[in-house]
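Input sequence (211 aa), recorded before submission:
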Amino acid sequence: MDLNERQIKILEIVKQNGPITGESIAEALQVTRAALRSDLAVLTMSGYLEAKPRVGYTYKADGVDNKIRKVLNQYRVRDVMSMAVVVKENCSIYDAIVTLFVEDTGSIFVLDAENYLVGVVSRKDLLKTTLGQADIHKMPVSVIMTRMPNIITATGDDTAVETIKKIVEHEVDSLPVVKDFIGPNNEEKCEVIGRITKTNIARLFLDLACK
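Predicted structure, token format:
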């Protein structure tokens, strides 16, 4: 919900002086108490303010945060994810670099012969290798990749909030979106079905802001 100029001023006054009565807010804005009735009602019903009899109005920071969280929790990773960029583990580092630039991505997910996730290689990993003496035309990405289970993943059912928290806490630009399977020897397998990136999250915020 977009707030008008007076409602924004009311929030600033309550933040700085709350709890504060409606009469005191009206006095600070140099208007009558009656003129603020609708604005105060909107801010209270929207969760920005809390009104207590004989106490006045207080700012509900938690209420605003919870409102944002509630909106984001309506979105699942499958709603905002994009296509994953993948290579096989026997792919040469040179070919991985070409794929990185052609697909304009920051990370590539590495699959085994059965197309299950076994690793991830980043732009930084590839850059470090090219600065060394390695033969990038012959060396496979499996030599330099980060291997499972040291890869942070997301599932299609994860909420936007859960995913943002993972990206921030682990300081990564993207996560593979996976489906989990149990192999014949009870080992965990992950099928890559997409990726979730900072750009995907930014687009979600932009879409919400433009609605």
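Checked by second reader. The longest strand covers residues 188-197.
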